[in-house]
Amino acid sequence: MSLEDTGKRTVTDEFLERLQQHRRYLYSIAYRLTGNPEDAKDLTQETIWQAHRKSSKYVYEKSLKAWLRTMMTNRFRDQKRKKSLKLVALEDAFIQSEPPHSTNMMSVEEQVEQRLLLERVKEEIQDLPEIYRRVIVLRHFHSYSYTEISETLEIPEGTVKTQLFRARKMLKERLSKK
């Protein structure tokens, strides 16, 4: 390791320390943006690491707080945009999904009944509130694990389980009424 490498690390470490000093400030902004403590912590951490990686682009004459705030709001907007794109893709995939392929052992009447039932279930799922619909689609139509759903939707695993429980309960109630 050369003397230049040591100097670079020291500058980078000092910059990281400066970033860490703004952690509370960033968290308060993140909490206002997300409305959720876990998401706010994640957004704060992601912003600090992104700023650390882009430290060479920081112009020292500018306010560090303003630079970080801009970086955080841009990151938040990007995440929101990605989430809405994922949901659109999920809904498209959901609409195109087919019934199970074990139909070759069923009679024509049974196949028709199964297709009608599946269509009815799809309609009921479409009528669910979005927070419930998205976990049902991921779990039952795409066979995602709780962890995969948590990562995809960027929500805690416990929330995934709660939303699935409530969604299934709503579906059961709706399907039993008709």
Question: In terms of topology, how is this protein built?
Answer:
Elements: H1 3-21, H2 23-34, H3 37-53, H4 64-96, H5 108-126, H6 130-141, H7 146-153, H8 157-177
Helix pairs in contact: 2-3, 2-4, 3-4, 4-6, 6-8, 7-8
**Average pLDDT rating:** 79
Strand content: under 5%
H-E order = HHHHHHHH
List the total number of helices: 8
Low-confidence stretches: 1-7
How many E strands? 0
* Class by alpha and beta content: mainly alpha
Tertiary shape: elongated
Major sheet size, sense and barrel closure? none
Query: Helical proportion?
Result: over 70%
Rg from Cα: 24 Å
GO molecular function: DNA binding; sigma factor activity
Domain RNA polymerase sigma-70 region: 20-84
InterPro entries: RNA_pol_sigma-70-like, RNA_pol_sigma-70_dom, RNA_pol_sigma70_r2, RNA_pol_sigma70_r4_t2, RNA_pol_sigma_r2, RNA_pol_sigma_r3/r4-like, WH-like_DNA-bd_sf
Pfam families: Sigma70_r2 (PF04542), Sigma70_r4_2 (PF08281)
